[in-house]
Design goal:
The structure holds three protein chains of three kinds. By secondary structure, chain A is mainly α. Chain A has 31 helices and two strands. In chain A, strands 1-2 form a two-stranded antiparallel ribbon. The longest helix of chain B has 27 residues. The chains are: A mainly alpha, B mainly alpha, C mainly alpha.
Chain lengths: 801, 149, 114
Amino acid sequence: MAPDLTIVTTAVALPFVAAALAPLLYRVLGERTGYAGAVVAAASFGLLATSVGEYGTVRASWIPALDVGVQFTVDGWGLLFALLASGIGVLVFVYSAAYMHDEEGLARYYAALLAFMGSVLGVALASDLVLIFLFWELTSLCSFVLIGHYTADEESRYSARMAMVVTVGGGLCLLAGALMLAAAARGALGGATFDLTAMIANDEAMRASLRESGLFVPALGLIVVAAAAKSAQVPLHFWLPNAMVAPTPVSAFLHSATMVKVGVYFLGRVRPLLMSPEWVAVVATLGLLTMTVGALLAVAATDTKELLAYSTASHLGLMVAGFGFDVVYGGEAGAFHLLNHALFKAPLFLVAGIVAHEAGSRSLDELGGLWRELPVTAAITAVAALSMAGIPPFNGFYSKELLFEAAYEVAHEAGGLAWLYPAAATFASVLTVVYSLKFLAVFFGERRTPVAEVHRPPIALVGPPAVLAIAAAVVSAAPQVAVDAVVQGAVEATATGEAELSVGLPTHFTPPVAMSAVAVLGGIAAYPLRGRLAAGIRRGVEAPVPVRPSGWYDWVVSTAAATSARFGPAVHDGLLRRYVGWVAAAGSLFALAGFAAAEGSLGIGGLGGLGVPLPVAVVLGVATLAGVAVAIATSHVSGVLTLSILGFMLAIFFILASAPDLALTQLVVETLLLLMFLLVLQRLPSYYSEVRPLAIARDAGVSLLVGATAFVAVLLTIPGPDADPTGVATYYTEQAVPGGGGTNVVNVILVDFRAFDTFGELLVVTIAAIAILVLVTMRTRGEASEAEVEENPLPDGGDSP
Amino acid sequence: MQTTTRVTVPIVLVVAISLFLQGHNLPGGGFIGGVLTAAAFVLIYVAYDLDYLESGVLGREIEPGTSVFEHRTVTAYRRTLLAGLVIVLGSGVAGILVGDPFLTQGYVHLEGIPVYHEVELASALLFDLGVYLVVVGSLLTIVSVVSGE
Amino acid sequence: MSVALAIAVGGLFAVGTFLLLQRDLIRVVLGVAVVSQATFVYLIAMGGIDEGARDLVPVLDTHGGGVPEIADPVVQALVLTAIVISFGTTALALVLSYRAYEENETMDVTEWAR
């Protein structure tokens, strides 16, 4: 059963409409706008929930010429992501209403948050690559606004810029990748299309077409870079911890549950399309590397939100790795962990916000034993953190177990270096247990420093994480229920073959179970050593710039700024003629380069002979000489006179080229122009300013370049003597009498076929006339008013010649 | 110079108008007719001056001391320009009223008319008239304002 | 492939650009005029110029007659409008430079640019 276009479109558009109305809502509702946002999110959630099971594609045409459409595909994978985004959205809006109490700029905050949610829904449901790209970049844009929420704070601005540069840059890679896919679709699907659903349906033909054109590896690389930038994969992970300067609800929503998942989501989406040995090598390795690096950095973290940020990167690595493996378990691990991670990471962030709000600190060294004051929060944290650690029977365990199985299977089949995959996965899981326990220590164990006074959080702060923790607990207790409800559809959509997901606690001993055991026991064993571990990791991180990607980022940004600061004055110095020079020279060079590149297909024919009748050649020769004479004329008047020689020669040329209309017009216009010049010139100094050889040489160089470009362009573009008239010309000639009722084809074109163009042209002439009128009149008026002030009225030159 | 002008200007004007009228079927048209007419008037300026057209041809009194902008002939050119634009637009809008897209031209055959036997009345001629008027108006505005300096 | 046309267009474009780059404002205006003239030639050249060109005037013999082989009318229509427009723009540029001279009392763009 196909989904209803109206329902899907409304679900995506509703947040955007609400975002546009947010300032208005804020004026009416004040801080209760958050609850209005929650209602909007709930409405989207409800609309989407009605589509569960109704999979299919709906499409409305948008840019038919490029075969770009507003196309939404509802399938298990997109729906899982969209439901997560809108469902967590509801909770985050409720939480925001309490957390963002007494803050500035709430209208902007809620508008951006709503637009962000709409964009994520768009990415999740759109199946047209252009549409996906648009929503993708919209998420980056909204996230920029939200990270930089505290506009007065320098660090906040820096982090917002960094997130923007990295993720938007990644988005551009996505665009390039999408164009390659569209180009390949021309071969595979019989027409350039951006329809991702059709591409995935014909994945083998697409792969063959991509390989044939040699675009497979570039397209794969670009898409992976885009996803890696968005999902904070090494080495582009550095923006995520910095993004933690955003208000906590934003961190919980964007940087744990939604925005960073966009990259993972897209990898899952194109997984069936691009699955290949290269895909496994790139994506699985990238994922496990990030998983390990993220876990290491999380262990070293000293701030609650920093720890969660790095752990997010690590878990994203887990999902990416899952999608990287070419086995059934891999896709299952990625899809199931997307759900599980959102269920445990969002409450953890919200808890971190509660702790910062109520205990006034985010430092892991200062916090401890808070369960006495915050018992409910502590319970939530226990569920979520143990789930994050992947300790059975919490939900994180199931998806991690699936990854272990995938890694083991791949290693078992490939052997050799592939054994590094399970090894890395286990090592990262050991660290995951360590940092999960470290976070849990905020609530349990003994107090570190006496915290002055811990408030009880209001229900609106505790409620949302509690709901999520309960959801996590439900998934933990009955994983198969959740799988059957939403995850199975997602697994089918991302799988490369048949996939039937069944999860549960292990009943007998297998190597993956051993890996889990190693991870849990190793983590618990390593926990007491965390201090030394963290110190060692920090020493590694503080190494010089080359190993730190954020150092590279700073270098690139500052160098770009410095270079443009130097480059600017060189080309932009306020002199118009310098601009003309640069534009003309650069334009010509590019045009010549383009001709040179395309020369093979265009081809210059025989160059023998003049190619035109002798009279034409003579007239043109005189015209060119006249042009040169204009250039070297020593006074204004001689320049103008030679210019009119050029004009009259052109009139003769028009006659020879069988264009009597043109010749007549040119003759008269040339006369008028000569008159105009002479009239103006009698008021101007008659000689040029001094001549400087160096400037002349430079100008001559640029001019010769332009001339050469024009020369080549003419040679390449004019038709040969035997060429047939163009289709347009033939059409107009044939239609002149029946369509326009005139035998002068030129005139018929002007006043009939292309009358609208002629109308525009008349407007140009009119505007020129009015402008001249105003230029002259305003001058006299200005002088008149000045004259009145001086009480010495000047006669205006109304009728001098 | 002035004598020549007396002789040539009428000829030029007649040629210009005939070029304009035959434009649909023979070389000519609104543009050419327009520039040629403008050239004829400019010839008068060069031979006499801006006021001659008023005093000599139309026999009106000249108000001395007014600026070019308020000069009566210049005002007349601006009116010409405006009229041209109105005609061009009007001929386009008329098409809409009949149900055709903007600026669609039509034509009718009229037969049995004395002298010509067969005459075509194209709405394009109206459009061309607008073109003619705009060209004459704007060119003359430009030239007279500049020469007025 | 007409070398003569190419040389003429290339030469005129080069001259026009050279004039555009000058300090003297009137020469810049002259440059605008020359570049537009060069464009006319180029456009006409795009339509193709054949031997015995005078017989190819794009005016049909009679109403309802066959369609003879004629010079490309489209480019001619283009150039016709271009001529009138270029007159308008050149005149505007000329008056502008005259006004600029009046205000700044120099024709040298480098002197009043700052």
